[in-house]
Amino acid sequence: MFYACASGKQTLDQGDDGGNPFASSLIAILERPRIRLGELPVALQELTSKKSGGFQSADVPKDMPSPDWLLIPSSTLEKRIALVLVVSDYSPPGSQSLQSLPGAKNDAKRIAAALPKAGFDTDLALDFDLPMMRQKLTAFATKAADCDAAIIYTTGHGVQTSGSVYLLPGDYPIKQQNAALMRRAIRLSEIADAVRAKRINLVFYGGCRDDPFRQ
């Protein structure tokens, strides 16, 4: 699991590259001619800090399984699959809403264009409601089980409470604050459960990890 920021911190929606510095950093890494999985955490952490002007400190794994596995270039013998699951539109008609995230929408398209360069058959799910997100994750998990490597990139408004991170759909009832998280949001661990490839499973979360609803 790769997080765009440390626990309790926020992320930027729009940096110098037109989106979250974490997403921009991942894209820059995917443009390299060669990188091993063991090199990814430090590279992503350093670039995110640089591109965010020190605002974001990516929270990355200390140790990676199969550190010599080549993210780039990809092996023609491997089956790779990716899902870009992003919520950017928080303006449902007739309800009090959170601020929409134009940077996240831009990132969704950029990430979805970058992952195929690393050999990933990539599906973009942008601004799905909660039932549709769960349906997409179920289908992805089924396909991933037959693949060698699986990636999910996800972002949107996020809330971290009691050690769990929740991704908020566009129609989240913010008047209910944290009381609706279990019913109307999706836990990041549920998203992570959908990466079920045989060898490599990676999740990149670009959202915030603070709790704006805590009183």
Looking at this protein, list some descriptive labels.
215 residues; alpha/beta; Rossmann fold; 5-stranded parallel beta sheet; 27% helix; 20% strand; globular
Query: Stretches where pLDDT falls below 50 for ≥5 residues?
Result: none
Name given to the CATH architecture: 3-Layer(aba) Sandwich
N-to-C order of helices and strands: EHEHEEHEHEEEHEHE
Multimerization status: single chain
CATH class: Alpha Beta
- Radius of gyration (CA) equals 16 Å
Please give the count of helices: 6
Strand content: 15-25%
| Mean pLDDT over the full residue set | 94
How many discrete structural domains?
1
Distance between the termini: 29 Å
| Major sheet summary line | 5 strands, parallel
Shape: globular
Level of helix content? 25-40%
CATH topology: Rossmann fold
Strand-pairing-aware structural class: alpha/beta
- Going across the biggest sheet, name each strand in turn: 1-10-6-4-5
DSSP summary, beta strand count: 10
